[in-house]
Amino acid sequence: MKISRTARRLGLAAVAVLVASFTMVVVNQAGPASAHGSVTNPPSRNYGCYERWGSDHLNPTMAQTDPMCWQAWQANPNTMWNWNGLYRENVGGNHQAAVPNGQLCSGGRTQGGLYASLDAVGAWTAKPMPNNFTLTLTDGARHGADYMLIYITKQGFDPTTQPLTWNSLDLVLRTGSYPTTGLYEAQVNAGNRTGRHVVYTIWQAAHLDQPYYLCSDVIFGGGGNPPTTPPPTTPPPTTAPPTTAPPTTPPPAGNGACTATFRKTNEWSGGFGAEVTVRAGNAAISGWTVAWNWPNGQSITNSWNATVTSNGSSVTASNVAYNGSLSANATTSFGFNASWNGTNSTPTLTCTAR
C-alpha cells in the first residue's frame, strides 16, 4: 500500500515533536531547579552537599570524607538537586508551631519528607567563620524578602549528638525587607561563641506566604570566655594597651598552659568523626599545638579549624590564624574525620601552649 506524500510529512512531523518533547524532559532532569534559593554562605546543608558533590555524587569516598552528605545522597539525591526549594507555604509567621523540634532542618518534613535527611544528627561538614560575618542568601527566582530571622545555637549545644530544637537556638537578628535583587546579605554577630554551631535562617519570601528553613553548620574561632565562665582571679599577662603590646605577643615564660580533650562524634564502618577541645589554663595563650599517637592504625582523612600533619602514627594539630589566642580558661575546638582498622581506640592527647 502506498502512503501519500502529505501523510508521510505529517508522520515525520509527529515523530519530530515526540523526540523534541523527550529531549526537553531529559534536559530538565540534568540539574537542580533554577527557581527559589538558599543560604550560600555559610552554605546550607543541602547546598553544601550539592556544591561539593553535585558533579561526583556517586563517588564512594564521600562515605569516609563527608559521611553526613553521603547519607543524604543515599536517602534521596533530589534533596540536593533541589537545594533551593526547601520551603513551606501558608505558615502565617507561626514558624515554631509549623516546624516541630528535631525537624527544623527539613522544614518540618515539608514536601513529603524530601529533605528529611537534613535532620540527621552527626558531624556535618562545617565552615569556619569569624564571629562577625556576612550571611548571604542567593535567590535565583528574585522573590524578595519580607524579613530573615537568623538564629544560632546556644554555647554548649552539640549538634553532632543532639537534635536541633527551638530551645537550643538564640534569635540573634531579625532583618527588614529586601527588594527583588536576588542576593540578600545580613551582618551577623555571633557574640563570643566558640566551636561548632548551627546557624538557622528563616527566609520569608515576599511574593507569597512562603518561608524557607535553612541549616548551616559553622565553627567559630572566638577566644573570649563564654558568658557562664567566671572572670579570672588574676589578670592575664597581656594587659598592656594594644599600641604597646600587639595581641600576638606570647605570654611570659612559665605561663600559658593548655589541655586538650578528645570526643568521638560519630562512627561508621571504617571511619569516624571526632572533635578536640583546647582549653587555656589560668593565663592567656597566643597559640597551641595538640599531639597524639594512633595506637591501632587510624588515619586522618580531612580536618577543620586546625593545621593537622601526620607522620606515620604520630599526629600534630596546631591552631590556625583565628583561634590561637585564648584568654585564661577560654576554649576553642577543631575537628576531623579519620579511617580506622581493628579497634577504634581513643588516643591520649598532649597540649603545648605558646
Describe the structure.
This protein has 354 residues and is α+β, with helices and mostly antiparallel strands. It folds into 2 domains: 37-220, Coagulation Factor XIII, Chain A, domain 1; 258-353, Immunoglobulin-like (Sandwich). The protein contains 7 helices and 16 strands. The strands form 4 sheets. Strands 2-8-7-4-5 form a 5-stranded mixed beta sheet, with no helix packed on it. A hairpin with a 4-residue loop joins β7 (195-205) and β8. The N and C termini lie far apart (95 Å). Residues 1-34 and 222-254 have low confidence and may be disordered.
Indicate the topology.
Layout: H1 5-28, E1 37-41, H2 45-53, H3 62-65, H4 67-75, H5 78-81, H6 95-98, H7 110-113, E2 127-129, E3 132-139, E4 145-153, E5 169-174, E6 183-189, E7 195-205, E8 210-220, E9 258-268, E10 271-280, E11 288-293, E12 299-304, E13 307-311, E14 314-318, E15 331-339, E16 350-353
Parallel strand pairs: 2-8
Antiparallel strand pairs: 1-3, 3-6, 4-5, 4-7, 7-8, 9-10, 10-15, 11-14, 11-16, 12-15, 13-14
GO molecular function: hydrolase activity, hydrolyzing O-glycosyl compounds; polysaccharide binding
Region (Disordered): 224-257
Domain CBM2: 251-354
